[in-house]
Amino acid sequence: MTEIYSFGNLPVIAHAWNKDRTQIAVSLGKNDVRIYHKIAGKWKLIHTLCEHLSRVLAIDWAPKTNQIVSASADYNAYVWTLENDVWKPQMVELQRTSRAVCCAKWSPQENKFVIGSSDKNVAICYYEKDQRFWAAEMIKKKPKSTVTCIAWHPNNQLIAVGSCDYRCRIYSAFIKIVDDQAQTSNWGTIKNTNELLYEFQSESGWIHDVAFSPLGDNLAWVSHNSIIFAVSAKNPSQIKMEITNYLPFRCVIFINESMLIVGGHEFSPLIYNYDQDKGTIEFVEKLDRQEVSTGRSSIGRRFDQPAMQTQTPEPISTHQSMITQIVPYQNENGNLVKISSADLFGQIVIWNLNDKKEIVIEAGQELRGDVDETLTLELRSGKAEIFGTELAIGQKYQFTSGMKFSIFTYWGCTIISSHDDYYVARDENPMHIYLNVHGMLEQLRQKAESEKTRGPRIMVAGLPDVGKSTLCRMLVNWAARLGRTPILVDLDVGQNQVSIPGTIASMVIRRPASVEEGFRIEMPLVFHYGYKTPGENIGLYNEIVSSMAMYVNIRSENVEKSLISGIVVNTCGYIRQEGYESFKHVAKAFDVDIIIVLDSEWLATKLISDLPSVKVITLPKSGGVVPKDAAKDKFRENKIREYFYGPKNNICPHVFTIEFNEIKMYKIGAPQIPDSCLPAGMILKNPYNKILPIAPSAALVHHVLSVSSSNDPEQLLAKNLLGFVVVQHVDSDKRTLTLLAPQPNIKNKLLIVSDVLFVDLK
């Protein structure tokens, strides 16, 4: 189980945990140290340590003595002690240091610490009880360039030092005042204070981090040229070097005597195995995945057509920027079982190294689950798919809290899971039936291809929460895997797969949906509705369905591949009274050939009677489908948040102010007035699509506004949308609105007010 925490948008330069990991000290690139306390799963700032005059570069927290050492670019280091809930600083006497202090680390016994600086100094610091100050013993044979990293040997009397002169050195850190007597280590006999025991030459590139193994028998370091070095105390003259194809590493840490983790510009921690007997360093696996995606990150850029084109590829991983530091989080029997890593985007991730559980799924069975916390799944062997998207062997898939997943296998497979938020369904499931429907549709496509005619047009209908959206996703995914390009039309205004709530949308499916993030959004066609259910304005709903059908039909008729691949229409679960009439309207507007009804004999019977020219197929719902009334609001909120911030919080939206006179706002649909309130003989025509101008007011705060592509208010219903903004503040005195938007401005100033709300708590 991976835990992800955000501490804002500032870079985490350094972080350290207290003894029970309920508090964390972080440096966010400023001249203070911030201490957060975890309360009810959230981090609350409780202390700010302000004494440094420049950026804090290093922090270490001694768990037993509960003291913090901080080092800064202001040439100073401080030891912080908690007294009466107040952290009190004491400066370390670093008289010979005249440049930035780059690193600081407590010894295993916490009776001393070591610092390294830009002026090549390495100082072993200890507390003078008689004088009551922190003294520093300087290393005499110091490095020839900036000291970048330090590591303590488990015996408390050796240190490893890395620097920008391409060398890693092992020094004696024996202090007679502090240590009882010098010890004999596996790296040799310690005789004198500050003695240089070993000096290891790297190939090239300054050294970023160094680490001893838990028993101290092995030493590893990483350099800026993407090379991992390791050496064993058994044979110090044999330095093993592993040249990698990854971006430069910034940190290294041992899990046990042979396994180590490196991280840096690659965004993902990597596990390597060091075999001291064979003298080899071999790659094992990534803790995270690293892919390239161009789709969902552009979902927030729908303000003009060029912005909807494929964007520059960007990495998708738990970390979205360079990993700055990896530190131990939890040990068991001397080995690391959890680590934490920090990055430049303010994220700290806790990785569980021993959380894999093997699940064997037999042919025809399904692995289902609701994710309470972040869950990682990996296909180890066999073949399996999630909602029609095939899983890749060895690829890690991450599901966040609130998500549901269903892994089905036709052949049998083995899954590795990070924890047990799942169960294997051995009951009868309709997956084979769904696949047979796909086979039938593919036969119709092949026939249309040979005869140069239109491919199948399918509408999926049923009661709420029977799996309509999932079935549509599977059908288009299976088609895309065969090279087809069907058009997916999603008319579900409450839980739309393509756009945000309060809209209907369509798009051409050129590739299967991502397992974790859904469809890659490329040039979608989106129409404004403004409500979360069709029943709130059924007349308006039917009218925009007609507009959508017109555009989809034009697209289908003008692109042969789309014409042959057909259309899949997803509908709402509103099937009673006027909702049923709306179903018939949808079927006629899109000229569907086949209606698939899920788990509703009543609806199927009615449609067969009323639409005799359409083939109606009744299918059972999956046993994994459950009512989700309580989760719908959360789903809608996440969908809107994803639009502005991206599926991985990898988009930074803009907040800007615009004057009242720069925009025009409208509301579609007038309230229905009872006939008894109208003058005698008067008939009010089509109030559902009446376009009403709206004056900016405080009542608009948190409302989602649609940005129309139309320049004429009378054409709002007939034109598609360019994007969305959210009203964050209305200043009536200054006559300005503050908007949250994916771009720093809006090109079209014609906005449509929606009843959908979004409160940005990020």
TrEMBL record:
GO molecular function: actin filament binding; ATP binding
Keyword Cytoplasm tagged: yes
Source organism superkingdom: Eukaryota
Gene Ontology cellular component annotations, sorted alphabetically: Arp2/3 protein complex; mRNA cleavage factor complex
Keyword Nucleus recorded: yes
Amino-acid positions noted as binding ATP in the UniProt annotation, renumbered to this chain: E366, K404, D465, V466, G467, K468, S469, T470
A Gene Ontology biological process term: Arp2/3 complex-mediated actin nucleation
Domain Anaphase-promoting complex subunit 4-like WD40: 105-173
Ranges where the Clp1 P-loop domain occurs: 464-646
Localization terms from the record: Cytoplasm, Cytoskeleton; Nucleus
UniProt keywords, alphabetically: Actin-binding, ATP-binding, Cytoplasm, Cytoskeleton, mRNA processing, Nucleotide-binding, Nucleus, Repeat, WD repeat
Main location: cytoplasm
Function as written in the Swiss-Prot or TrEMBL entry: Required for endonucleolytic cleavage during polyadenylation-dependent pre-mRNA 3'-end formation.
Family per similarity comment: Belongs to the Clp1 family. Clp1 subfamily. Belongs to the WD repeat ARPC1 family.
The protein's name: Protein CLP1 homolog
Taxonomic source organism: Rotaria sordida
